[in-house]
Write a structure and sequence with these properties.
Layout lengths: L1 H23 L10 H17 L3 H8 L2 H4 L2 H14 L2 H15 L3 H28 L32 H20 L4 H21 L5 H24 L4 H6 L2 E6 L5 E6 L3
Antiparallel strand pairs: 1-2
């Protein structure tokens, strides 16, 4: 059920990004959040509400011996779990570093913005996890409504289920890559969106398979990640010369210093 809901949401997200990108180019600077974002948020909330009553049954079905003993499912879940964490951090950071080393501004731009979105959404997710104090399904698969205010702070992780951190990281990366591709390769944006959001969806489903999250945790994480990524890209491109880009996308020059050694110069102007 959750896979079906997320599969329906992903193409809508890609379409909305393309629509928003067209509007952004016509207005300067664009708002941090748009009406399209509101519709997307509503869609994710509706999806979370739809799967909420099914949390227990979805968790139980995912843990059936026939599913857990399936080597293909197990290996796929492992791949996409690791793609979300630490994969998203490696991809975002790797693109940024590679772009800086090769002086490829586009690559550094995508990697930097992806990293910003992952960090931002992760902070939001951690606060929500800690405040909600929801028990993971591995604690008691028959009690998806085990919340306790503030219990997630200082816990070992068993009470930090809501939302899914892996999922929000995966969707943060997907939304940034898809949004950036709409600016660079608009004809390929739909395909890129299907691939990135498809991978992010499988990352979320892997967390259900691993008995680490409820379906509603995954839906909320997908929404937070998507909206954070969209906001980061929109803000950064709508406010050229902002302090974040001046710090992380500045030009760096290295030259021999008088008297020996090396001198590093940083240009904070864009």
């Amino acid at each position: 059920m959750v896979g079906v809901v997320m599969a329906m949401v992903a193409p809508s997200v890609a379409w909305a990004q393309g629509t928003a990108a067209g509007r952004d180019s016509a207005t300067a600077p664009p708002p941090l959040f748009t009406r399209a974002d509101g519709w997307l948020a509503g869609g994710f909330v509706a999806g979370m509400v739809a799967v909420w009553p099914l949390d227990e049954s979805i968790a139980e079905r995912s843990q059936l011996p026939s599913n857990q003993s399936n080597a293909a499912l197990k290996n796929t879940a492992t791949v996409f779990r690791e793609l979300a964490d630490p994969g998203t951090v490696i991809i975002g950071g790797g693109l940024y570093i590679a772009g800086r080393l090769t002086h490829d501004r586009t690559m550094a731009d995508i990697g930097g913005h992806a990293s910003e979105a992952i960090i931002g959404s992760s902070v939001v997710g951690w606060v929500l996890k800690s405040v909600a104090g929801r028990a993971r399904p591995r604690v008691n698969i028959h009690d998806p409504h085990d919340f306790k205010l503030g219990r997630g702070f200082g816990s070992a992780g068993d009470y930090q289920s809501f939302p899914s951190g892996h999922t929000l990281a995966a969707f943060s990366l997907a939304s940034v890559v898809t949004a950036e591709s709409g600016r660079l390769w608009p004809r390929e944006q739909a395909l890129i969106g299907v691939l990135t959001y498809g991978g992010a969806t499988l990352s979320g489903l892997s967390r259900i398979y691993n008995n680490a999250h409820w379906a509603s945790d995954v839906m909320l994480g997908a929404g937070i990640g998507t909206l954070t990524g969209l906001a980061v890209v929109r803000y950064q491109h709508g406010h050229p010369g902002n302090w974040v880009d001046r710090i992380f996308l500045h030009e760096v020059s290295v030259a021999p210093a008088v008297g020996g050694g090396m001198m590093v110069g940083v240009n904070l102007q864009r």
